[in-house]
UniProtKB/TrEMBL annotation:
Catalytic activity annotation: RNA(n) + a ribonucleoside 5'-triphosphate = RNA(n+1) + diphosphate
InterPro entries with a match to the protein in the record: DNA-dir_RNA_pol_helix_hairp_sf, DNA-dir_Rpol_C_phage-type, DNA-dir_Rpol_phage-type, DNA/RNA_pol_sf, RNA_POL_N_sf, RPOL_N
Annotated keywords: DNA-directed RNA polymerase, Nucleotidyltransferase, Transcription, Transferase
SUPFAM superfamilies assigned: DNA/RNA polymerases (SSF56672)
Protein EC: 2.7.7.6
Family indicated by similarity: Belongs to the phage and mitochondrial RNA polymerase family.
Source species: Bradyrhizobium aeschynomenes
A Pfam family annotated for this UniProt entry: RPOL_N
Full protein name: DNA-directed RNA polymerase
Domain DNA-directed RNA polymerase N-terminal, residue spans: 12-296
First-level EC class: transferase
Length: 820
């Protein structure tokens, strides 16, 4: 029997939360500041208002001063941004700029993309304002109708543009080019830096390329991490809900309940007209029923995990947490002198020493940038959890992407998030553990989270039973023994420790609410093996029953060793055998294969794995020839993958050929998944323009990408395999949920190829996901259906669908380790 929790909230409370999340409009900004000043909150001002006071007000003054200088004819640099900025209140421009830059700094986003976003926000305001000014009555009527229909923002813009372009409308909407948006955004970012020193622009290297990114300055970083400030503008625009989300019944309007937030589209970022038309014609009832079940699942904050995490975070601890302070840049090598002339400064430093220092300094800068992003992300997650810790139930609205995959709308804290985020969440409703099977699933989940997941189920349960006393002690004093921090997913494992200890103390009848999940075994290759009934690949990814989990990464490693032994006359082959070939060397190349892996990516992953092993103390037997030797090893890894997963490579090659033929005919690709969702792929050629602009007194060149009218054949071919297999794992998940609903399961923790529910229902979920997978592939020849859905002229040139193998797909039902 469900242990239902009453939820002491109402739609009015949720509406208030959504109004707070709206966070838009200069008038509201001014009201917040005025309220704060009137109350004399000072340093205790809630974070959102404090950020407004610290950033938006001074930025507004700089913008207004620049506008006044430009209007007066005062001497100084003229900027293309002034013409646009003069049409908007300075406070509004400042607000949009601050909001975008905060998000960009947290994510370490690129300067160009952020600048264009700012320009796009201003363009949207100008267009709506122009429409309202020229036709206020029509504007009010359209806006009211759009709200009644729950139209999304993209649809609303199209409606206004269509209405403005009617023959008798006589309405002109302003338009800003992508280049102009970039110029405007860069100028506003520059003004923000001038007004506040809030962020800084740094150049980081990604491989052979460099990129300008936005990041917080050191003092702002510390301010953002101050736990006494509720940084409201750091909170996600779309937050978890405290009432069940609105069900999806159409292409927009599901999720949030009020008019304060823009209506969500069912399929996010759906910008292609052809895809919208396909969605409008499709029967999405089954997909929406499954999606509604996910977002109707009530969650709550795991208070015990939050207490431990918050305590360590406040102490500045790095126990299972991101580094709290930046690493110091290594000192310059001997011989370096401080001098304005760079050549003079480095004149007495040997080239090798200079090169080594620059590599170390670059690595430190990049590590610091990554660490800052993790710190800010975790700070946001903890703040959100603390705000919701007393709620009886919280909910996460979900949307789909263009392949039909389901994603939680709130960022940061959500059931699909990081280890920290997932650990802070547990189901709001539990079910009692009444038998050994349910207790076994709870134990298996703990072993999996720790990383003991290659053994059979009995051994995993035994692993837990051997540690019962340690688990009980850790639940009482989690910081007395930090063994849990060595787990693959330490925070989720700690959440499990608390749950399992409570079960040990209470015994059968304990109401467990912790999500227990089973993960697919290299799920992309499972789908490829199933669609072509490949017995070799199917055995390698646990489509067939076996006494132990099949380890495809080790199988590929074993095949590599066989190849090396066949070439033992080559000293490099002998060197690799002595070095040791294991699953760590082959895991990444195998894992990414169904998602567009190439020989180049294989080489990159093999090199990274080799470097890691050498860093951990493995001797390099190749000396200066390590690069050439690694290339040789990569070729063996690549060919060994093909030996083990023959059908997957055949299917991928076939899909790529079809994609190239479709591109030759100038048509995008669409297909309907077994769940009824129409997926759509159309990657266009991009025209890259180098645009020069001034930033903080220096001339910089930024690249702006603009869509062309031509489909990009290479991107279409490269993307079709991952997009196709992602659409199938989405369909399998939806079919699993529907079967679970029919069998009384109501709580879902679903992440693409990881399915979870409470321990008491896990046995039923395990059965449902297997039957749903078998039914999907027994009833659908997905590659033939893909071919049949292509235009006739494309279909006529495509090669025949690859032949089926001898795998009996029904054996999946008996495979314990298919999802485990």
């Amino acid at each position: 029997m469900l242990n239902s929790l009453s939820v002491d909230c109402s739609p009015s409370k949720e509406e208030q939360l959504e109004l707070a999340a709206k966070d838009r409009g200069a008038q509201r900004v001014r009201k917040q500041v005025e309220t704060a000043k009137r109350k004399g909150l000072g340093a205790d001002t809630p974070g959102g208002v404090a950020l407004v006071k610290r950033a938006i007000e001074p930025l507004s003054k700089v913008i207004q001063q620049s506008l006044d200088d430009a209007a007066s004819g005062k001497a100084g640099r003229r900027h293309v941004a002034m013409k646009t900025l003069s049409q908007l209140p300075a406070e509004l421009s400042a607000y949009f700029t601050t909001r975008e830059v905060i998000s960009a700094a947290i994510e370490q986003a690129g300067l160009t993309a952020t600048a264009i976003k700012i320009g796009a926000s201003l363009e949207e305001e100008l267009r709506l304002a122009a429409f309202d000014k020229q036709a206020p009555a029509l504007y009010g009527t359209i806006m009211r109708q759009l709200k009644e229909r729950g139209a999304g923002a993209g649809h609303a813009r199209r409606v206004f543009v269509y209405a403005a372009n009617k023959d008798n409308a006589n309405i002109e909407l302003p338009s800003i080019s992508k280049t102009e948006k970039m110029h405007i955004g860069v100028r506003l970012i520059e003004m923000l830096i001038e007004a506040t020193s809030f962020v800084e622009i740094v150049t980081v290297r990604f491989g052979q390329k460099t990129k300008s990114i936005i990041r917080p300055t050191d003092h702002v970083m510390k301010w953002l991490e101050d736990r006494n400030l509720r940084a409201e503008l750091m909170a996600p625009a779309y937050a978890p809900m405290v009432v069940p989300p609105v069900d999806w019944t159409g292409l927009s309007g599901g999720g949030y309940i009020s008019d304060h937030l823009r209506p969500l589209p069912l399929v996010k970022a759906c910008s292609k007209k052809q895809h919208r038309e396909l969605l409008e014609r499709a029967d999405l009832s089954r997909v929406m029923e499954a999606l509604n079940a996910i977002q109707r699942t009530p969650w709550k904050i795991n208070r015990r995990v939050l207490e431990v995490m918050s305590s360590l975070w406040e102490q500045g601890s790095e126990i299972a947490l991101p580094r709290r302070e930046d690493q110091h840049i290594p000192p310059k090598p001997p011989g370096h002198v401080v001098h304005v002339d760079r050549e003079v400064a480095w004149a007495n430093v040997p080239p090798e020493a200079k090169k080594a220092w620059m590599a170390a300094a670059r690595s430190t800068h990049e590590n610091n940038a990554a660490s800052r992003g993790k710190r800010l992300s975790l700070s946001q997650i903890i703040r959100t959890a603390e705000d919701l810790r007393d709620e009886g139930a919280i909910y996460f609205p979900h949307q789909l992407d263009f392949r039909g995959r389901a994603y939680a709308v709130p960022v940061g804290l959500n059931p699909q998030g990081s280890d920290h985020a997932k650990a802070l969440l547990t189901f709001a409703e539990g079910k009692p553990i009444t038998n050994a099977r349910a207790a076994g699933w709870l134990a298996i989940n703990g072993a999996n989270l720790y990383g003991f997941d290659k053994a059979d189920f009995d051994d995993r349960i035994g692993w837990v039973e051997e540690r019962q006393e340690l688990i009980l002690r850790t639940a009482d004093e989690p910081l007395a023994d930090l063994w849990w921090t060595e787990a693959d997913k330490p925070w989720c494992f700690l959440a499990w420790v608390f749950e399992y200890a409570a079960f040990l103390r209470e015994g059968y009848g304990f109401v467990s609410s912790l999500p227990v999940s089973a993960d697919g075994s290299c799920n992309g290759l499972q789908h490829f093996s199933a669609m072509l009934r490949d017995p070799v690949g199917g055995a390698a990814v646990n489509l067939l029953p076996g006494p132990l989990p099949a380890d495809i990464y080790q199988r590929v490693a074993d095949r590599v060793i066989e190849k090396l032994r066949e070439e033992q006359e080559d000293w490099k082959a002998r060197g690799w055998i002595d070095f040791g070939i294991d699953r760590k060397l082959t895991k990444r190349p195998v894992m990414v294969l169904p998602y567009g892996g190439t020989f180049k990516s294989c080489m990159d992953y093999v090199r990274a794995a080799v470097r890691e092993k050498i860093k951990d103390g493995k001797e390099n037997p190749f000396g200066d020839e390590i690069g050439e030797a690694t290339t040789m090893l990569s070729r063996h890894v690549w060919s060994s993958i093909s030996d083990v997963v023959v059908a997957a490579r055949v299917a991928m090659d076939w899909l790529q050929k079809c994609a190239r033929i479709a591109t030759k005919h100038g048509v995008p690709i669409s297909w309907t998944t077994p769940s009824g969702f129409p997926a759509f792929q159309s990657y266009m050629d991009l025209t890259q323009r180098r645009v020069k602009t001034r930033l903080q007194g220096s001339l910089v060149f930024l690249s702006v990408l603009e869509d062309s009218d031509t489909i990009n054949g290479s991107k279409q071919a490269l993307a079709i395999s991952p997009n196709f297999v992602h659409s199938l794992d989405a369909a399998a998940m939806m079919e699993t949920i529907l079967m679970c609903i029919d069998n009384g399961i109501t709580q879902f923790a679903m992440i693409h190829d990881s399915y979870g529910t409470v321990a008491a229902d896990m046995e039923k979920l395990a059965a449902c996901l297997r039957h749903a997978f078998v039914d999907m592939y027994r009833d659908n020849h997905v590659l033939q259906q893909f071919l049949d859905g292509l235009p006739e002229q494309v279909r006529a040139e495509c090669p025949p669908v690859p032949p089926m193998g001898s795998l009996d797909i029904a054996q999946v039902i008996e495979s314990d380790f298919f999802f485990a």
